[in-house]
Amino acid sequence: MFKNSIFALLIPFLFSLAFLGCEPEESENKEICNNNEDDDGDDLIDCADLQCWGHVGSPNGDQICQSSESHCDDGFDNDANGDVDCDDANCVDSPDCSEEDTETNCEDEVDNDSDGDVDCADDDCVDDPACSEEETETNCEDEVDNDLDGDVDCADDDCVDDPACMTPVEDCTDGDDNDSDGDIDCADADCDGQIGPDGQTCELTESLCNDGYDNDGDSDVDCDDTDCAADSACIVGESDCTDGSDNDSDGDTDCADAECDGETGPDGQICELTESSCSDGYDNDGDGDVDCDDSDCTIACLSDGDLVITELLKDPNQVSDSSGEWFELHNTSAADIDLRGLVIYSQTSGGNDATHLITASSAVIIPSGEYAVLSVNADLATNGGISVLYEYSSINLSNGGDNLGIRTVDGTVLDEVAYDEIDYHDMSGMSLSLDRDYLNPIDNDDSANWCYVVKRYNASDYGTPGVANPSCIKETNCSDTTDNDGNGLIDCEDFACAYDANCTSYNVPDIGDLIITEIMADPGIGTPDSQYEWIEIYNSSIHMMELNGLVLCDSSYNQHCFFLTHGGSMGLGSGNYALFGYKSENVPGTSYVIEYDAAIMLSNSSDGVTLMRNHESATPVIIDYVNYDAMSGWDFMTTGASLQFSSDATQTMILNDDPAYWCAATTVYDATNLLMGTPGSANDVCEIILPETDCADGVDNDSDTLTDCLDGDCDGLAGDGGTCEYGYESNCSDSFDNDGDGLVDAADPDCAEGGSLVAYFSEYVEGSSNNKALEIYIHDASGVLDLSDCEINKYSNGDATFTVITLDSTSLSSGDLWVVCNSSANASLSPYCNQLEYQINFNGNDVVELVCNGVTMDVIGQIGSSADFGKDTTERRNAGITSGDPNGSDAFDFADEWTSFSQDTFDGLGTR
């Protein structure tokens, strides 16, 4: 009988391969089947581990591991159950274990007689044909030991070169089925543990579930392979937000995992992507910081005074309001503050709020203890040269006064400033600055703690944007080489030291020591023409006067001012002139011009010039003041010619108030532009015409060919039988020729029916920023009306006094319209405008009055009331209204005679 038949070995091996097709669960390590060690950690060793079924299990390599003992004569416990060969119950029926006296079959590879010799090795088979001796194995596939050397077929060295024994080997990287078993590369079990085509490791079952490779060659990669269903890399989503485990292996646990947003966390609280529940004592976003310790809660945990408004500029000179308004915030808290989520708001006296929510893609941080500027414009090239942390919109700082504040979205006010209550709040180009010693929300409500800073941050504007404010207590010692008030100016450099004995040896000018003697108000060239304007002053005293420390203002002493901060003493000798101008090169032929800035912009027909000192005092020293007005005796004003105080008049502040001593210059000083005047030198002699001295004597006292009431000098004065009215009879029942035209009462066309309804307002525009306009409609005019006989009076913030806005000299007839706009109106409004005036800057609580020939034609608003009646609106007079409302003392409501339109509606202007 032949021993060790290869067929007998092949059957259990094929069975093991079929069993392996069930894909038993494998650990990450492989079991080595013949080292007597538990390599994969499953407590099963060598043949006891199902991974070894079908593999060599003995150290000498002859025995095979099996699921059940079928090799019953190899002396090896193939199924690792402790029983070997015929002692194993699986071998009961094996021929190897049956008892026979002789070897009955000499070629069944079974020890039939159990004498230890199989087939031809048993002496019983000596004469059996199957055991005839051959020198070599003659047939390498007949499963017979032909040469009786104990080696059968391919196990015999004689068969090495026999084609039947040359088995193909699977190459695991070439994409071919090299052994023709139907499986290619990693799909072939022969490649288990070998390197595959892409340098990855082949596996019988996919166990590497995040390497991006089909390890078992079944066309399913990683988590798409069912072998990986239970692998942690393939579990989607944090399945439990309370267990303290990273269920989806993404590095984030429970509330720290974004997938838990809105779910219940470990302590029963709600998980959040960012901490927004800032008072629940819980780390909602799982970042280790709870409530106010979490930076997400910075805004929610802010309280009153953590941010303080410390400085603001509502009326810049260098650029327009819409480009250069700003305010400063100071972070008083101990933590850096990200402003995102806060609300900026402004509120007028009428209660109308404008708001802006601070949003940005990145943090908007003010570090603890630092200052930052927020502005309507963040572009340094166009905002006046300030560095801005954040650019807002929708907030316009009213020049007349406003409440400016910052709050949280839930309404917690961090700070608010009512800057209309701060003294001298109308001064253009000057920021309002909170004293550095009062940086809290209580003290910054006290106007006494605010002041102006006489330190420029550009050519035309004053302030300290973005840095610590100076003290409002001015430089206390002008010789200690110390910046006492912290404004960056030391001793005599500081404006406050101008008149200190250590800083000047000249006289401090008093009332009338310096007088205004020449004004170039209407040069007629330049855009704007203010760059060719200038103002001349004269030292009328017998002493050398100090110029450093003076303040020159366009109009009244609390607005549009220039501060002469020369940085040291500057004297003006007795009888000498000093010249102030926008640009020195625009005043040729002069030796020296003190350049002021954009704060000084003189109106062509009506304005004032003030020279003063001690500007911040409740009663500043007005050294001189000249008010020129084309409707009040200054009708000689000529484009291209300065206004001159006659050199032969006594040079006093009393006479230079009288237009009779002034005239238009006739001497050319700029031949290129044909500008006339005598800047910096003695003026021309004016032909002085004194006013009509007696309006009831029938005599032309001033020799101007006009007598009594016909002379404009008599307007409002007593005539011979009544009150004189210049140019227009409005009292039609006093039996007196009020305007001196020879026609009395009803005989005068001025008194004809409808004659008093000369003009009225037909449209009112209170738009955004500088988009302000008034439309005047001419109705029932007697002949032609010269619009220069009319004026607009503006009453600001409930004041009983008014600012006069003169109108151009133009002839208008019944049915004509005239639109007057702010000179800084934007491109969408300006095409509708007939006349531009910077004083058309009313807000929703400012009353406007139309007066023609001294008679009130129309009033919008109630004089003396600061109620907000017309903010952010366009109002159009109803078609059925044919006259104005001349009563400015009664209550006013647009709803009575007007139709409202949305803010910045301009398309109705110029039509009626």
Mean pLDDT: 83
Rg, rounded, reads 53 Å
Number of strands: 38
| Poorly predicted runs | 1-27
Instruction: Specify the biggest β-sheet.
Output: 6 strands, mixed
Class by SSE composition: mainly beta
What does this structure look like?
The protein is mainly β and 912 residues long. 2% of the residues lie in helices and 19% in strands. A hairpin with a 7-residue loop joins strand 21 and strand 22. Residues 1-27 have low confidence and may be disordered.
List the helices and strands and how they pair.
Blueprint: H1 6-20, E1 307-313, H2 321-324, E2 326-331, E3 337-338, E4 342-347, E5 353-357, E6 365-366, E7 371-375, E8 390-391, E9 403-408, E10 413-418, E11 432-434, E12 450-452, E13 514-520, E14 534-539, E15 545-546, E16 551-554, E17 561-563, E18 571-572, E19 577-581, E20 594-595, E21 606-613, E22 621-629, E23 643-645, E24 662-664, E25 668-670, E26 675-676, E27 759-766, E28 772-778, E29 785-786, E30 790-795, E31 803-806, E32 811-812, E33 817-821, E34 835-836, E35 847-852, E36 855-860, E37 873-877, E38 898-901
